[in-house]
Amino acid sequence: MQLLIVLLGALLGFTYGYNTDGFIFSSNICLFAGLTMIMPSLFKVKLMDVKLLWHHRTVVIKSLFLNFVLLPIFAVIIGLLSHDYGIAAGLFLLSVLSGGGMVMYWIKKSGGDTSLGFLILFINLLLISLSFLMLHLFGVYTERYFDTLYTDDNNNMESYARLVIELLIVIPFIASRFVVLFKPLEKFIETYRPYISNISMFIILFYLFGLQSTQNLVDLYDFEPELIVIALVAVIAFYVLDLTSAWFIFKMDSPQERAAFWHSVTRYITLALVLSTFSMKAFGVSMLLPIMIAYMIQIPFAILTDRKLVEKEKA
């Protein structure tokens, strides 16, 4: 279902932009994403649970190491092997954005610690500025390997990071504190959250692919069909390395380790798609390929991983 929404939103958005003047980019799309997709994830974040971070600091440190050191290294290696600047950048962006809309479902289903899971999610959102900085450094230090020129600068990245933090973290968190004061509204959002998420995803994709800038990039970029195959192989290789590393690093007999495990083996794909809007001009439209393909890979990948956990428990 989610894959169908992704494909339909992208196709209709691109068709709309191609046959009209397209949309002009507005940062309001980030605010919309923050309120409809991120804010509901923050309902369960309780300030009193912050003490869990110190109590389970070893788990948190391992999670940060995997998601901000090891996985980006894997992404750089696979990206260089792809020989495409955009695919490499898209994969790198995925590597520094862990978790996602369904991560809490998998944590809960596997018997993981949901309280710590929400805290890790919040930490990862707070580190979006770090993710942007890492993407900028990736662009600066890999451009020569792809025989291209990285066109963004650090000042742009800093302004983007501040904007994203405000629209995707600060405002949604403040809004979530108000919503939890009105239990009927919180219950309504929680009840219909899957529908809200899917509708929001469709609107975001329709908007992003209907942008004038997206149309211009497609017109300017010499897109090669074989890049789809390259991106597919790159994403599968990344997820395999991701899962292998997570199995090795985390002890699955602990609820806290299970929470961190799921934050590592899943990526925040929709957030990566939104953030790629700020970077597509620098890396090319092929940056979208690994992000779009991740939608196809992550759900069946998570299902198979969950089955392996069940089999391990029965053994």
Tell me what you see in this structure:
By secondary structure, the chain is mainly α. 77% of the residues lie in helices and 0% in strands. It is built from 17 helices and no strands. It has helices spanning 2-19, 28-38, 51-55, 57-82, 85-95, 103-109, 114-126, 128-142, 154-179, 183-191, 193-209, 212-220, 226-249, 255-265, 269-276, 280-283, 288-314. α2 crosses α9 and α4 (57-82) runs antiparallel to α5. The model has no long low-confidence stretch (mean pLDDT 84).
Q: What is the straight-line distance between the termini?
A: 33 Å
Q: How many β-strand runs?
A: 0
Shape: globular
Q: State the order of secondary-structure elements, H for helix, E for strand.
A: HHHHHHHHHHHHHHHHH
Question: SS-based structural class?
Answer: mainly alpha
Helix content: over 70%
What kind of oligomer do you see? single chain
The share of residues in extended strands comes to under 5%
Mean pLDDT: 84
Low-confidence regions: none
Q: For the CA atoms, what is the radius of gyration?
A: 19 Å
Count of alpha/pi helices:
17
Major β-sheet annotation = none
Summarize, please.
The protein has helices at 2-19, 28-38, 51-55, 57-82, 85-95, 103-109, 114-126, 128-142, 154-179, 183-191, 193-209, 212-220, 226-249, 255-265, 269-276, 280-283, 288-314.
Strand-helix topology:
Layout: H1 2-19, H2 28-38, H3 51-55, H4 57-82, H5 85-95, H6 103-109, H7 114-126, H8 128-142, H9 154-179, H10 183-191, H11 193-209, H12 212-220, H13 226-249, H14 255-265, H15 269-276, H16 280-283, H17 288-314
